[in-house]
UniProtKB/TrEMBL annotation:
InterPro entries: ConA-like_dom_sf, DUF1349, UCP022704. It comes from Methylobacterium tarhaniae. It holds the Pfam family DUF1349. This is Regulation of enolase 1.
Length: 192
């Protein structure tokens, strides 16, 4: 399953599909966040979702040029407006950080410096038996773990590329090599 099966949550004004590439330019003041620290809820980010029935592995390649605070692009897995995770690169204090936000009623936020080219990277999400594993790759071959956490069990999930710019409009993002299929079934420390 790939882009051909997708639909928008918060369709951006500017986007196009060309072969296996989805190009998006973000709208102004877009974000996904619930309550924690800031006290507000935002559900306005751009999310191009396909439906995965039961457990799955999804991956995508992301190319973007981050410029302003909170510019972000990556992958989202969503059960509902209050149960989701987003992961990718997010600009924080002038530095591109590998970032994930897990929301189960309220959002958390975990970041770490990313030691590779933040403008071109890969993400993988695997959901199996109520557990979510997120992996990041600089080359699409070697997949270090970035997060392992409980995640709601559901009959189906929405999964796909997401991008947001809470402080501006105009982040240009190219998503490619998107796939969703059966869980990879790899051991936790198998980084292939």
């Amino acid at each position: 399953m790939g882009f051909e099966d997708g639909t928008w949550l918060n369709e951006p004004a500017s986007w196009r599909m060309a072969g296996d590439r989805l190009h998006v330019v973000t709208d102004e003041a877009t974000d996904f966040w619930r309550e924690t620290h800031y006290g507000f809820t935002r559900d306005t980010g751009h999310f191009f979702a396909v439906r995965a029935a039961g457990d799955f592995t999804a991956q995508v390649r992301v190319r973007a040029r981050y410029r302003d605070l909170y510019d972000q692009a990556g992958l989202m897995v969503r059960v509902s407006s209050s149960e989701w995770v987003k992961a990718g690169i997010e600009l924080s204090d002038g530095v591109p950080m590998i970032s994930s936000v897990l929301t189960l009623g309220r959002s958390d936020w975990a970041t770490a410096p990313y030691g590779h080219d933040a403008g071109d990277f890969w993400l993988r999400a695997t959901v199996v038996s109520g557990v979510l594993r997120l992996q990041v790759s600089s080359d699409g071959t070697h997949w270090p773990l970035m997060r392992l956490c409980p995640f709601p069990r559901a009959a189906s999930y929405s999964v796909g590329p997401m991008c947001c710019t809470p402080e501006r409009a105009g982040l240009s993002v190219d998503f490619s090599d998107f796939s969703v299929g059966a869980p990879a079934g790899k051991a936790l420390h198998d980084l292939s």
